[in-house]
Write a structure and sequence with these properties.
The chain is α/β, with parallel strands linked by helices and 427 residues long. The protein has 15 helices and 18 strands. It has one domain: Glycosidases (TIM Barrel, Alpha-Beta Barrel), CATH 3.20.20. 40% of the residues lie in helices and 16% in strands. The strands form five sheets. It has an eight-stranded parallel barrel, surrounded by four helices.
Length: 427
């Protein structure tokens, strides 16, 4: 699966007073048809995409589907398969933030409503980068609740992962063959000196927390104590072990130059740059979870020479091929995102309007060098590496294979009026 994405990040800053909306600042609401043209120009058939959560989910049981209806109908018409990103770094104002204990239940209902409305959608990322969202919101104090303590971090993390799992459950009631592609940051912490080894080992255990909980895997003993010391109860922990949906998942992971960290004896960290690289770090995660892999995000600035991003694309693709060659089932690759982004140079902590030249296209929708290179890469490799993956328990279906409205699916469920799928699945 060769993919790209249209970023729908919506964190709040200034203690909830200011909303950052990447779709808005990148012009997607006005140019969404043109953006889909760009996707097809590259030759891409899979798109990480989702409706803006804060504009769609207006209140409990209140939704505005107008934009989603238009956009998803157009994706279906063009035979572009969406990997639906339902929550990307933020929630509507009425939900508050990720400290809200009602968030999992509320979000699960939203997931069910979406799946009911768009039954032809099979691929989902219910919540994007759960670990990063919890860290940036509740440990670094950058977004949303803007907390900086371990208890707030554990609270955000358990709510995010529980919401993700409950969302998967509701989607599966409507689409029994749904596949969930996690998009989670893959990290590694390098000890700068012997005095930093303990801290680095702790951080290298912590990086697995979101996925351990999501896949129902028992966490390391040190992390179990950490979770209980910071507000997670035993019953809450056991809930994750009892709700294991790993068999419906692809392990999607993201890798950037900033994903590796150098840890010092006093505990502070700095970016280490690409040291081990994507293939080695992904191998560590694969050995832990034993799931098919998809590279779900990477990018690099187009620098002064114009070829920096092109070289990075080649390097990441070489890492993907390396994984496949050593027997790790790798089913997809993503350059993220379709267009340049805005204000990621400050991690969306400030609204400065700085355009970051990271996309396959610039914000005028003119193709960048990396866009041309990705187009050629896809043309060269598409027929050599078929992505219809024998390693998946549930095969990916083409949109055109989905029954039209008022038809029955293979399980005899009728696709007609509102609520029919979920009710029959629960019967």
């Amino acid at each position: 699966m060769f993919a790209t994405g249209i970023e729908n990040s919506i964190p709040t800053i200034d203690h909830g007073k200011t909303r950052v909306d990447e779709m808005e600042v990148c012009g997607h609401y006005e140019r969404w048809r043109e953006d889909f043209d760009c996707v097809q120009e590259i030759g891409i058939n899979f798109l990480r995409y989702g409706p803006p959560l804060h504009k769609t989910w207006l209140a409990p049981n209140k939704f505005d589907w107008e934009f989603a209806d238009l956009a998803f109908a157009e994706l279906k018409r063009r035979d572009i398969t969406p990997i639906v990103d339902l929550c990307h770094f933020g929630v509507p104002d009425w939900v508050g933030n990720f400290q809200n204990p009602d968030f999992p239940r509320l979000f699960a209902h939203y997931c069910g409503e979406f799946a009911e409305r768009f039954p032809w959608v099979q691929l989902y990322t219910p919540i994007n980068e759960m670990f990063i969202c919890a860290v940036f919101s509740a440990k670094y104090g950058w977004w949303n609740e803007q907390k900086k303590d371990d208890t707030s971090f554990v609270t955000a993390l358990k709510h995010l992962v529980k919401a993700n799992i409950m969302g998967m459950i509701e989607i599966l009631k409507r689409r029994h063959d749904a596949i969930f592609i996690q998009s989670e940051s893959s990290e590694y912490y390098h000890a700068d000196s012997p005095g930093a080894i303990g801290r680095a080992e702790l951080l290298n255990q912590m990086r697995f927390l979101s996925l351990d909980l999501n896949y129902g895997r028992r966490v390391d003993s040190g992390m179990y104590q950490y979770l209980l010391d910071n507000g997670m109860t035993r019953d809450e922990y056991n809930w994750f072990l009892e709700h294991r949906l790993k068999q419906h998942c692809i392990f999607g992971n993201d890798y950037y130059q900033l994903n590796e960290h150098r840890v010092f004896a006093d505990g502070h960290t700095v970016a280490a740059g690409e040291t081990f690289g994507y293939a080695e770090i992904t191998r560590q995660y694969y050995n832990r979870y034993r799931l098919p892999v998809m590279h779900t995000e990477t990018n690099l600035w187009e620098g002064p020479h114009g070829d920096e991003a092109v070289k990075w694309l080649w390097k990441e693709w070489a890492n993907v091929l390396r994984l496949r060659n050593v027997g790790i089932p790798t089913v997809g690759f993503t350059w993220y995102s379709l267009t340049d982004q805005v204000d990621w140079d400050t991690a969306l902590r400030e609204k400065n309007g700085n355009v970051n030249p990271l996309g396959l296209f610039d914000l005028d929708r003119k193709i960048r060098n990396v866009g041309r290179a990705y187009k050629q890469l896809i043309a060269d490799w598409r027929n050599v590496l078929p992505a219809q993956s024998v390693c998946l328990v549930v095969p990916i279906k083409k949109i055109s294979d989905y029954p039209e409205e008022d038809d029955d699916d293979a399980a005899g469920r009728h696709f007609g009026g509102s609520g029919t799928q979920a009710k029959k699945a629960e019967a």
